[in-house]
Amino acid sequence: MTKKILILPGDGIGQEVTKSAVEVLNFVTEKFNLAFSITSLEVGGTAYDKCGSPIPDEVLKSAKEADAVLFGAVGGPKWDQLEWDDRPENALLTLRKELNLFANLRPAFLFDELSGASPLKESVIKGLDILIVRELTGGIYFGEPRGVIDDVKPNYAFNTMIYNEDEITRIAKVAFESAQKRKGKLCSVEKANVLEVSKFWRSIVTEMSADYPDVELSHQLADNTAMQLVLNPNQFDVIVASNLFGDILSDIAATLTGSIGMLPSASLDSSFKGMYEPCHGSAPDIAGKNIANPIAMIASLSMALRYSLNAEAISDKIDAAIKKFVQNGYRTIDIATDDNFLNTSEVSKKIINIIENE
Ligand code: NAD
């Protein structure tokens, strides 16, 4: 059956890295005779400039119909002063919420050849391969009530951190099952020492562990995990955390690899439809220069092929090509040690060339 793919390049380098990933997608679609229907639409600030909304109705409708959405990045100083409803970032949160993308998978891995790019010592970082499973549609980012009260003295602002048992169970299930497919270790992260919602989270995850005897479960407080990720990252296999803690920890894990330009992410619903995006933003400082590293976006395409598009073998080929690209010594500006680096459009050509010659 034809699978539907929606391409949303977004703003800044989102446009450039998505173009590279689409070149790879078009190549594998043709070479391996894949039945894909591919549509591309504007989102974020680019869409706001054209039609006054960062997420036009057509985008939401097409995203709901798609099996996989490839999302570049949104945002930039041009739109920073807008009201929340008009801001590019609103498009991202709306898509996550409306598509019910509750499970965010963020791998953080390091190719041995790039261990010099990490801010950590090679002896600490070598072999890094972590998967962070972040709850994406609940918790304090969406909790109600929320607000700013400015008609009393002193003024105050508040948010609500809330999880029900179903939300915790479904994200923990994804994490346990991911650990089963990897090294069999799961660390559940919260702040059970101070937060009721965290104590509740811990009790549910602990109860579920009886159904996964092959997974070694541990619990850590979020502040300790932030420290442990820097001191001894290789202790981790899979980490599961709420929206807030997962957001912070996955950025730390991404930084450990030395380049945010290498790391993909997947956000899935319960039937494995999903949105796939690089971990980085729209990088206004380098936008339009054709120097952004598109590998995170190409690796996100690979995750889409694996999880949502029934094309695991093609995903393996893309992952192998990225590995070979790095092993062959090709570099982009963010991981180069000298002036010898490829620009954005050259990277997809190299990746395609490697797949073609395998
Ligand atoms: P950023 O990830 O865009 O950039 C951080 C730094 O990393 C910059 O120096 C940038 O040049 C570099 N960088 C990022 N991706 C790179 C790549 N592929 N190749 C080479 N270098 C790369 O984060 P930021 O500067 O905090 O945010 C910029 C804008 O992006 C803001 O408007 C923010 O809201 C938005 N943003 C969007 C998303 C998203 O769409 N998912 C995520 C984060 C930030």
TrEMBL record:
Mg(2+) binds at residues 223, 247, 251. NAD(+) binds at residues 76-89, 281-293. It comes from the Bacteria. One of its GO terms (biological process) is L-leucine biosynthetic process. PROSITE patterns: IDH_IMDH. InterPro entries: IsoCit/isopropylmalate_DH_CS, IsoPropMal-DH-like_dom, Isopropylmalate_DH. Its main location: cytoplasm. Keywords: Amino-acid biosynthesis, Branched-chain amino acid biosynthesis, Cytoplasm, Leucine biosynthesis, Magnesium, Manganese, Metal-binding, NAD, Oxidoreductase. Pathway: Amino-acid biosynthesis; L-leucine biosynthesis; L-leucine from 3-methyl-2-oxobutanoate: step 3/4. SMART domains: Iso_dh (SM01329). Its EC number is 1.1.1.85. Residues 4-351 form the Isopropylmalate dehydrogenase-like domain. It catalyses: (2R,3S)-3-isopropylmalate + NAD(+) = 4-methyl-2-oxopentanoate + CO2 + NADH. Its cofactor is Mn(2+); Mg(2+). GO terms for molecular function: 3-isopropylmalate dehydrogenase activity; magnesium ion binding; NAD binding. The record marks 141, 191 as: Important for catalysis. Binds 1 Mg(2+) or Mn(2+) ion per subunit. It is found in: Cytoplasm. GO terms for cellular component: cytosol. Substrate binds at residues 96, 106, 134, 223. Homodimer. Catalyzes the oxidation of 3-carboxy-2-hydroxy-4-methylpentanoate (3-isopropylmalate) to 3-carboxy-4-methyl-2-oxopentanoate. The product decarboxylates to 4-methyl-2 oxopentanoate. Belongs to the isocitrate and isopropylmalate dehydrogenases family. LeuB type 1 subfamily. This is 3-isopropylmalate dehydrogenase. The lineage of its organism: Bacteria, Pseudomonadati, Pseudomonadota, Gammaproteobacteria, SAR86 cluster.
